[in-house]
Amino acid sequence: MLKLSSEAKVGIFVFIALVILVYMSLRVGGVKFGREEGYTLIVRMTDAGGLDKNASVKIAGVEVGRVKEITLEDHKARLKLLIKPDVKIGKDFTAVLKTKGLLGERYIELLPGSPAAPPLKDGDEITRVLTYTDVDTLITMLGDVTQDVKAVTETLKKVFGGKEGEETLKNIATNIESITRRLDTIISENENKVGVMIANLEEFSLSMKEVSDNLNSILTEHRGDIESVIENVKSAAARLDVAMKSLADIAPEVKQTVASIGNVSKKIEKGEGTLGKLVNDPSLYKGIDRTVKGINKYLTRVENIRIYPGYRGEFLFDASETKSYFSLRIQPRRDKYYLVEVVDDPRGSITKETRETVQNGTTTTIEETTTTDDIKFSVQIAKRLGPVALRGGIIESTGGVGLDYYLMKDRLRLTFEAFDMDRDEGIHLKAGMWYHFNKYLFLVAGADDFVNEEGLASAYLGLGFEFDDEDLKYIFSSAPPISF
Length: 484
What we know:
Layout: H1 6-29, E1 39-45, E2 56-59, E3 62-73, E4 76-83, E5 94-99, E6 106-111, E7 125-126, E8 128-131, H2 135-160, H3 162-189, H4 191-221, H5 223-270, H6 273-280, H7 282-304, E9 306-316, E10 321-333, E11 336-344, E12 349-359, E13 362-372, E14 375-385, E15 388-395, E16 398-407, E17 412-419, E18 428-436, E19 441-448, E20 458-466, H8 469-478
Helix pairs in contact: 5-6
C-alpha cells in the first residue's frame, strides 16, 4: 500500500481546496464556459445607473436571462439582454429597472403584456421602458424633507421658546380645556337631539339599503341589456381606435401636403412662377382695379336705367274708333330716352290701285282701295334740351321725326310728329297735347293727319297711364299671395 508523506497529503488537500474555491467563484460570478444558448433583445434606457453586466433579467421574480452587454448610444444606455431560448418575450412587454430591497443590486424586470402579442425575435428591441425613482433620488428627497422639518422645528422653537412661549402654550391649553367643557355641556343638553339624529341616520341607512336592493334587482333584470350596451361601447371604441390609426397613417401625408402648400405660398410670395408673377405684378392689380371700376360704372348705369311701360287710347271722332298705343319708354338718363310702341290703328294703311280693262273696244278704269297693316310699331330715340325734346326713328312703321315742348313742370306737353312722308296722300302730320293729372294718369287730345285731303283727318281725345318699373316691383311685392 502506497504511503504518502505528510507534505504530499497537505499538497493534495490544498489542491482540492483550490479546485473547489475556483468552482464556487465561477458559479457565484455567473461565469459559464462554452457558447451560451438563447437569443438577444435590445433595451434603451435614459439611466441605467447601478446596473452591472451579467445582472439578472426576470419575469414575475423568475430569472429568464441576464444583461450581456451595456453600452452608450445617442446619450442613452443600450442594454443587450440574453434571454433563455424557451422563454418567449412579446412585443408589448415592458422593461423596468428595479432594485432588490432598499440598497440591493439592480436588475431588469420584464412586465408581460397581452398573450396574443407576437413574440420578439433575435435582435429585436423592447420599446416600452419604465424608469422608477432610484435610491439616490429618494435620499435627495429625504434630505429636502429633513431640511423642511428642521426649519419648522426652528420656527416652533422661536415661537414657543422663553417665557412668552410658555405663556402662549398655557393659554392654548386653557382654551382647549374651555372648549372641551363647552362641548361636554352642549352634548349633555342636546342628548335627546343626538338620539333623534342617530335614529334619523338609521332610518336613512335603511332607505339606502332598500334603494340598493332595488338597484340590484334592476341590474339583475336588465343584465342582458347592460351587457349589450357594454359590447356596443367596446365595438365603438374599437372602431374609434381603427379610425385613430387611420388618421395616424394619413397624418404624414397631410403634413407633407401642408408643407408643399407652404412652399408654394413662399414661391408665390417671392414672385416665382407664373402665378407668383401674376400676384406680385402691380400692373395686374392696376388692370383688375380698372376692370372693377368699369364694371361698377356699368352696373351704376344699369341701375340708373328706368323703364316706363304704358298705354293710351285715342278716340278718332271721324272714324268713331279707338287707336291704341302700347308703349315702353327706356330712360338711361334724365335727358335721354328710347321709345318702343306697338300701335293698333283701326284705319291701317290705305293703298289705292288704278286698273284699266278693255272690253268690246271700250276701256274701263277701276280704282281699288286696300287697307292693310292694322298693327304698326314705333322705335324712336329722344334727346331733351331744356324744355324741348327732339325725337326721331320709326313712327308707325315709317320713318319720321317728332318735337315735344314741356310746360308746367312737365305736367303739360305739346307734341308734333311728321312721318310716312312718301305716301300718295302726302306727309302724315299729327299735333296734340298731353296733360298729366298725376304721376300715372294723363289726358291726350289733338288732330291726327290734319293735312290729309282724302278725308282721313280727324280730331282725337283719349286717356292713358304710365308707371315706373320700381312701382311695378312694389305692386308685385305687396300683393297678397294667391292660394287655391
